[in-house]
Amino acid sequence: MRATLKTTLIALAVICALCTAAFAANETGGRVGEFLSFGAGARPLGMGKAFVAVADDASATYWNPAGLTQIDKPQLTTFYSSLFEDTSYSFISYAHPFNGPDIMGINVVMLNSDNFEKVNSLNQTEGTFSDQDMSIDLCYARRFYQNISVGLGAKYITRSLAEDKDTYISSDLGLLYAATPSLSIGLSLQNIASAKMKGDSEDKFAPELRAGIAYRMLNDDLLLSMDLSRALLAAQKIHVGVEYKLFKDLLVLRIGSDNVELSGGVGLTIDNFSFDYAFAKQELGDSHRFSFTYSFGDMTAASREKKAEGLLAKAKESYMAGRYTDAYDDVKEALKVYPEGKDEKLLKTKLDRVFETLKKQKGDTKWGDGKTGEQMDAAVKDYLNQDLYVAKDRIEYVLSQEPDNALAQDLLAKVEATIAETNTEEDNPIAKRMDKITNLFYAGEYDKVIIEAKKVVAIDPTIADAYKKLGSAYYMKRKMNEAIAAWEKAIELDPKDTRLKNFVDGLKKPAKTSKVSR
Question: What are the pLDDT digits (tens) for 385-409?
Fold first, then answer.
């Protein structure tokens, strides 16, 4: 995980450098279409506009259209903010998933400023006029493979100033990569191709590049995000945001910052309704932002399967890390979403066997200190993977060191009960592995013999026959030093095998003679 995070940070730094080089220019103010950089949604704005790698609600039509693939049912969100001097900013977006990897979305963004005085050439007031900017953005997103999504957006933009009106079209591109269940990387290119359809203005839209990273931790209760953004003819900006969930999504706290403002906010979710509020403090004054989001309808089959895949990935990650109770909770949730999931059922069946013991362990990754703790952890993994006799041997070792270990006693009882239930006395895993090694050896698969023999001695280092087969495989591959070392270990475990001892002694004699002759 640490290597993945390091690689991601390096990639983000490279993107930032390319962004700086490609868009380098002196900063200017008041560029056309600047209202499209104000942001959308109280939740993202409360997180400092660090949302391109999050983009998991209907506001993704604005931040990163690729993020729409994370939405599992139809969703509508509205946003309103009262700015300064009779100026208001509003946003509405709708996302609609289909029964497949595709999803569509549409949004409308409006910036409206009223009560400007209209003055004639004689400096006489002739009433007031308004300045209005509006954008309609139609988006399409598709998920490729399991963790890569691509989104496209086509925008129709109008700008009205008194009687003058300009019309433009523009396009966006978004990418989202889920590197792990906890780590995501986003990239959004806005206004990559734009053209004026109507009007006398010579203004042009400036392309904008935004790259981001988001990391979820504490069982997804804590979200950390950071974006780097740069528009042509504008300075680079850094956006950082934090979101923390309380009471299982009921209440959410947020804080964020960028080059312009410090922000914070809260969110409240009840059933399918969400209310979000954000507060921002900047040089021009304070502003308040409000959003309402409503999710409705049933999840599509594809959405249910996709959500279950994400939960299963989290469960497997916890399972491999030894956080079994976390894994159990996630796999149960996955089966609620997608009851027909075969992999989900298999993992839950494994965890069901030891859940009571796991609850006593409270999800910690260690079962004790030192070697006994390591052996208990390994025993649980062996048991869940049906290596029953290996698990039994490990637990008995722990009890030989700690006879009063209640967790070991509990787990041993379950292992022995499973052995009795499945009648595995005739299905000893070590014996089966040794049969496999023998068949591989006679088939000439010496590399595979080496691999399997090493697995056996790792489980039980007292099996002389495994070392014999290991030595024979090395001998057939002309690796004499390795062969002699393995055979000597076998002789140590089985000193009655005089035939092997004489053979090894015969191999070692020429080496000694050769050394003397030098």
Answer: 767 788 888 888 888 888 888 888 8
Q: How many other CB atoms are found less than 10 A from the CB of residue 177?
A: 17
Residue 306 and residue 323 in contact, taking contact as beta carbons nearer than 8 Å? no
pLDDT of res. 289: 92
The sign of the CA dihedral 255, 258, 259, 263 is negative
- For the chain, what's the residue count? 518
Q: What pLDDT does residue 344 have?
A: 80
**Region 128-137 average pLDDT:** 84
Closest CA to 72 of 94, 57, 62, 83: 57
Amino acid found at 487? W
Q: Which helix (DSSP H) or strand (DSSP E) does residue 224 occupy?
A: strand 222-231
The letter for the amino acid at 398 is V
* Structural domains of the chain sorted by starting position, each given as residue range(s) with its CATH number in brackets: 2-297 (2.40.160.60), 302-426 (1.25.40), 429-517 (1.25.40.10)
Check if the beta carbon of residue 208 is closer than 8 Å to that of residue 230.
Answer: yes
Task: Report d(CA 168, CA 164) in Å as an integer.
Answer: 14
Report angle CA 352, 356, 360 to the nearest 5 degrees.
Answer: 135
How would residue 115 be classed by pLDDT, with cut points 50, 70 and 90?
low
pTM of the full predicted structure?
A: 0.63
The candidate with the shortest Cα–Cα distance to 416, out of 396, 436, 402, 397, is 396
- In sequence order, the 6+-apart residues with CB closer than 8 A to the CB of 241 are 44, 46, 47, 48, 49, 50, 51, 223, 224, 225, 226, 254, 255, 256, 257
pLDDT at 98: 85
DSSP assignment string, 117-152: EEE-TTS-EEEEEEEEEEEEEEEEEEEETTTEEEEE
Instruction: Check whether 200 has a pLDDT greater than 70.
Output: no
| Other C-beta atoms lying within 10 Å of the C-beta of residue 510 | 9
- Mind listing the pLDDT tens digit for each residue in 337-386? 888 787 788 778 777 777 666 666 554 445 666 777 788 878 887 777 76
